């Protein structure tokens, strides 16, 4: 009997410890493979996140920058016990995002799931392909043309609000002005609602979005609150829930109101608005009848019934997030750089003057298309300060990069900020030079050496929208003012959360143009 008990005990012990031993062997093998890639020293449990301990928010960016310059092209880090491989070479980026294989975002994006659900930014697989196909028509050229009056109107309001700060000899922080203008634009174009952020002061919705962005970073650098269980019980989790409720309640209310309006119009018409727009492309794609992103989703959903209300909410939340913060950063950095380069600014003024010839009429799509130099300035600003400096993918199969084997399932971080500083493609990479984007200078450049909107199948669906908006708003400012930056490049620090934000804003001296 004792022998039987011993045998049973041995079998039970094996059954209990076998999975652990299996995991341990797999874990040791993973560490051996990943640690062949160069990178900073890692410690148990915290990995390499100790590098961020005690750092202020803006200092985190410079830790990442220093680490990447120490290990150019490719390196590995450990976020707690989770390995990540970081790349900053165009050829490696192409191998990862150039095809439709590795379209799943990295683990960190899961921290956005409660906020953005499975919108285009965070979804994967068949759902992503389906939604991308459904949403692509909402960025048709003629729909974007219909938004030009919104861009121009809000840009003009911002330029007027800046007037009291001109010719004072004192700098003004332009970042909050651009933030509110971008919020007004995205609310009207995405949701069809006017929030009047520029003229009616602080807005709880935008404050909640900023809070969610900051909390994402706070969680990312603290492995001990990566689990939902620990995060929701932390002070960060409580702040997150409060901000999340604000954002979701606002979006849901707007969707309910727009659906009610759509249903009312349908009842008043012999044919539904959705059917009419399906047969009359001018209704959907024409500038005569401007429809918000939300309107288009709801109308097409009446026809196809392919999206639930929650699907619509997730896509609208995603577009609100991606289309607000990113353009704010892009415009701010572009004005900062133009304020440091009066010679380039003079040429932009000449270009704008040649288009408008002294009039104060709104900028049309045709006008924006003629702003070739201003567009090159925006692209160069996005090279130096990409709105999303770092983004990630999860490998769907094994890859080899730089002679290093990286197994399926590994998180792959792509450093757009450092890809854009490759001296092979950008001599003197820290220099602001819009001529880098002249056609003759871009035709032979590696297609993945410039990725401010990502690249490949999962590139940013709203990049044309962003460039048009940024050109229109900047033109509104530059039609009225000459600008000069109060800080040098060295003095202007960077905050990296989800977006590359300027620490302490962007301070500009404004002079009225005669």
Please provide a written account of the structure.
By secondary structure, the chain is of the alpha+beta class. It is 54% helix and 9% strand. The protein is built from 22 helices and eleven strands. The strands form four sheets. It has a four-stranded mixed beta sheet with strand order 1-2-7-4. It has a three-stranded antiparallel beta sheet with strand order 3-11-8. Helix 7 (148-161) packs parallel to helix 22, helix 11 crosses helix 15 (309-322) and helix 16 packs across helix 22 (463-480).
Q: What structural class results from the helix and strand content?
A: alpha+beta
Distance between the termini: 104 Å
Order of strands, widest sheet: 1-2-7-4
Taking pLDDT < 50 over at least 5 consecutive residues as the criterion, the unreliable ranges are: 278-288
Largest sheet: 4 strands, mixed
Bulk shape: globular
Number of strands: 11
Radius of gyration: 25 Å
Portion of residues within helices: 40-55%
What is the average per-residue confidence, as pLDDT, rounded to a whole number?
87
**Count the helices. How many?**
22
Beta-strand content: 5-15%
Keywords:
514 residues, four-stranded mixed sheet, 22 helices, 54% helix
Structure, briefly:
By secondary structure, this protein is α+β, with helices and mostly antiparallel strands. The chain is built from 22 helices and 11 strands. Helices cover 54% and strands 9% of the residues.
Strand and helix map with partners:
Blueprint: H1 2-34, H2 57-70, E1 74-79, E2 82-87, H3 90-97, H4 113-116, H5 125-135, H6 141-146, H7 148-161, E3 172-173, H8 175-191, H9 204-220, H10 228-232, H11 235-268, H12 273-279, H13 281-285, H14 293-304, H15 309-322, H16 325-340, H17 342-356, H18 365-369, H19 372-384, E4 390-394, E5 399-401, E6 404-406, E7 411-415, H20 416-419, H21 439-442, H22 463-480, E8 481-485, E9 494-496, E10 500-502, E11 507-512
Parallel strand pairs: 2-7
Antiparallel strand pairs: 1-2, 3-11, 4-7, 5-6, 8-11, 9-10
